[in-house]
Write a structure and sequence with these properties.
CATH architecture of chain A: Roll
Number of strands of chain A: 10
Helix content of chain A: 10-25%
Strand content of chain A: 35-45%
Number of helices of chain A: 6
Oligomer: homodimer
CATH superfamily of chain A: Electron Transport, Fmn-binding Protein, Chain A
Radius of gyration of chain A: 20 Å
CATH topology of chain A: Pnp Oxidase, Chain A
Structural class of chain A: alpha+beta
Number of domains of chain A: 1
Shape of chain A: globular
Low-confidence stretches of chain A: none
Largest sheet of chain A: 9 strands, antiparallel
């Protein structure tokens, strides 16, 4: 692990603790998987969930990028939460309140025996209660799905955050923050059946 | 340009047109800049805006990553909009409605003479009307800011999307989509001055 890649060289006050990393991956749903192909940066946004000290990602066994990563290419998995726009007096002091995290390393494939339970875990994190409402995975479905994990160790991650009001206010004009929220809307049904409990709970 | 990096090898039906790329970068505000450092993937989320056929990013001249990218390291700038969770009967068919885009290439530095107007453009895209409300940039502020552009050409980008209901419904249980919205909340003032017009307009 290149130490510089996991060390903040600027604004060390924005370095954040492990709980921020957990929040970021637990709330962002979508993360960005970066890797290197023929010396070039390669990137794809995908669902990533956290399970304790590992990140989980999954996709089709036919997905070239996922196979590349499964074969040991180094990855950097990043996610962020944009919490607010920070409005200052001077454009220079405008900023964002955010939380972000990156985990680096090499993915390993989740063994076939654990694919079903790991996929359940994946769905459970995105839509709690949903796996129990679905029929069991078929052998064919499991065989078509690649599930990868990336360990979160003591030193292969970085988390950053900024919070609070803008800096350098003079009191001569308005400064403050504009919160950014993400929320679920009313489900759009493609069925005459009643909403499942998982969906009702998610949308509150 | 490695052609494979800009070609979808799976699900070509999800390849999208240039207007999707524009929507993604115009609405996401935050994008992910991926590059390669010593053969390792390196990534940072940052504000990125689109201006016609270029993406603009900026930061402190003291930011190591930005300098690396300014010095010609290849980048992949990606962004996504998560539009909805797609709930199907089988876990295997669960998905997401999304729009995503990646632009690849090498950044060039915006010349000093254009830094001020480009920074105005940057702020204008995030908080329309704000540059006109702020005092002029100082020479010191401009000197401390690095502004980079990445051209969007005919063939250095990819856009993808999924929309619509889940596939493979049998009619035996509910299927549909749960929209995901992002919105601005009530501004948090750190000042007794009245809200500026730009902020009032943004929050509607």
């Amino acid at each position: 692990m290149n130490e510089a890649l996991c060390t903040l060289t600027r604004k060390p006050d924005r370095a954040a603790e492990r709980d921020v990393l957990d929040e970021v991956f637990d709330r962002s749903l979508v993360a960005t998987v970066s890797t290197v192909v023929d010396g070039q940066p390669w990137v794809v946004p995908t669902f990533v969930i956290r399970d304790g000290n590992r990140l989980l990602l999954h996709g089709s066994t036919g997905a070239g990028a996922l196979r590349h990563v499964a074969n040991g290419a180094p990855v950097a998995v990043s996610a962020f939460l944009l919490d607010a726009l920070v409005v200052a007096e001077r454009q220079f002091e405008h900023s964002a309140n955010y939380r972000s995290a990156v985990v680096r390393g090499t993915c390993t494939e989740v063994g076939e025996a654990d694919t079903a339970t790991t996929l359940d875990l994946f769905t459970e994190r995105i839509l709690p209660g949903r796996p129990a409402e679905c029929p069991a995975h078929t052998t064919r479905e499991l065989a078509a799905t690649l599930v990868l994990e990336l360990a979160i160790t003591g030193d292969n991650w970085i988390a950053k955050q900024r919070s609070g009001p803008p800096s350098m206010p003079t009191g001569e004009s308005w400064v403050g923050v504009i919160p950014v929220h993400s929320a679920y809307g009313t489900p759009v049904s493609d069925s005459r059946c009643p909403l499942p409990n998982s969906v009702c709970r998610l949308i509150g």
